[in-house]
Design the sequence.
């Protein structure tokens, strides 16, 4: 189970976003300038040993990654690859960004520390993925961009350019219409931005639209990274994985923990939110302090997530509680309510993992004082099978009350 399969930090069944894309006739976006010259050499420092600090840094990076669905609102569905990446091997193959053999050696050589990816797609060919990777140093990020531009030039991709992104390394692939669909253009773009390496995959219906939308994404990404300071490598292992002191108020979910587990501030949380625009308004209006989630998979194929949010006061937490219920019941049309006998007023829902699927999610919310919690179970096939979520919900309520 990945972030894309389970809600809050995990749901991909629909993202409702506001439109902030360029309006036709308003002119092209400003040129993307990174200030990072292409180096002749790079002397990377090996990354720190993997640990909780690595995951924490990936969550920090999340807050500086473009919310693609807000920028390009026609991309209405969350997709994979998405979420945290904490070692180069994760970037290739199933669930990764690159085909086998194209990226791991380069990312390893140039000191990859951690990264975060965001992916949105439309029902047609249109899609956009943004991956922001923290490298050893600015020279290493630029050298990695050059090397990846070479290794990714396979399967028909050829060198291209974006007029408004002169520092970008661009690969382009055009496909003509066949019985499976219409024409499409796919771009792979690599841009070093100081220590950060930005990779964008963008597919669109024609070359002009692809270039325009990809440039919008790059411009927004450059603005976000201008306000982001990567952690110096020696300090990564010492990063606090629980700065809001909320881990003790979240249950340990069954099975093996995923790298979504950890703390999130407002910006990073919105990258895993069910409805980012709506939730941003709710959280900012109610004294949001922070959130912590535990996510895991077990050997039986079930997935679990428990989340706690802290707000400024009990009334603010209650307002958020009611607003989250409103998201479930008004922004989605596939929710079915069910009742937990021990907590009959607690809002609980089940819904299919995908349209027509027999695999279900269950989700319940609970509030205690200034804390709002949610519990998710993924992978059940019988909606009456509520034993696990009832047990977890009781435990979550107790954890929040301690």
Sequence:
């Amino acid at each position: 189970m990945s972030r894309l399969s389970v809600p809050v930090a995990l749901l991909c069944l629909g993202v409702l976003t506001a439109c902030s894309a360029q309006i036709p006739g308003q002119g092209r976006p400003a040129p993307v300038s990174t200030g990072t010259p292409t180096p002749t050499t790079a002397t990377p420092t090996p990354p720190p040993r993997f640990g909780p600090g690595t995951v924490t840094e990936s969550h920090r990076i999340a807050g500086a990654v473009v919310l693609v669905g807000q920028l390009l609102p026609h991309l209405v569905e969350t997709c994979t690859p998405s979420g945290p990446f904490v070692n180069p091997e994760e970037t290739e193959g199933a669930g990764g960004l690159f085909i086998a053999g194209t990226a791991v050696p380069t990312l390893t050589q140039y000191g990859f520390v951690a990264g975060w990816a965001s992916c949105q797609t439309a029902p047609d060919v249109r899609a956009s993925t943004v991956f922001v990777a923290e490298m050893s140093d600015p020279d290493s990020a630029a050298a990695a961009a050059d090397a990846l531009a070479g290794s990714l030039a396979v399967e028909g991709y050829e060198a291209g350019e974006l007029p408004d992104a002169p520092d970008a390394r661009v690969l382009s692939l055009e496909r003509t219409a066949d019985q499976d669909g219409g024409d499409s253009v796919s771009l792979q773009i690599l841009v070093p931005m100081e220590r950060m390496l930005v990779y964008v995959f963008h597919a669109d219906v024609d070359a002009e639209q692809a270039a325009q939308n990809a440039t919008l994404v790059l411009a927004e990404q450059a603005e976000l990274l201008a306000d982001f300071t990567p952690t110096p490598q020696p300090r990564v292992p010492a990063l606090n994985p629980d700065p809001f002191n909320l881990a003790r108020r979240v249950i340990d979910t069954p099975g093996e923990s995923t790298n979504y587990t950890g703390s999130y501030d407002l910006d990073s949380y919105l990258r895993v939110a069910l409805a980012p625009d709506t939730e941003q308004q709710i959280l900012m209006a109610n004294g949001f302090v922070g959130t912590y989630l535990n996510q895991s998979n077990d050997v039986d194929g079930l997935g679990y997530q428990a989340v706690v949010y802290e707000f400024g006061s009990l009334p603010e937490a209650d307002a958020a509680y009611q607003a989250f219920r409103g998201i479930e019941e008004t922004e989605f049309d596939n929710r079915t309510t069910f009742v937990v006998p021990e907590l009959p007023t607690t809002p609980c829902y089940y819904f299919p993992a995908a349209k027509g699927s027999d695999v279900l999610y269950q989700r319940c919310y609970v509030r205690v004082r200034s804390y709002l919690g949610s519990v998710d179970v993924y992978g059940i096939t019988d909606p009456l099978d509520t034993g696990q979520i009832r047990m977890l919900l009781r435990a979550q309520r107790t954890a929040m009350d301690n």
Q: What stands out?
A: Confidence is low (pLDDT under 50) at residues 1-31. The radius of gyration is 21 Å. The domain at 247-401 is CATH 3.40.1000 (Protein Transport Mog1p; Chain A).
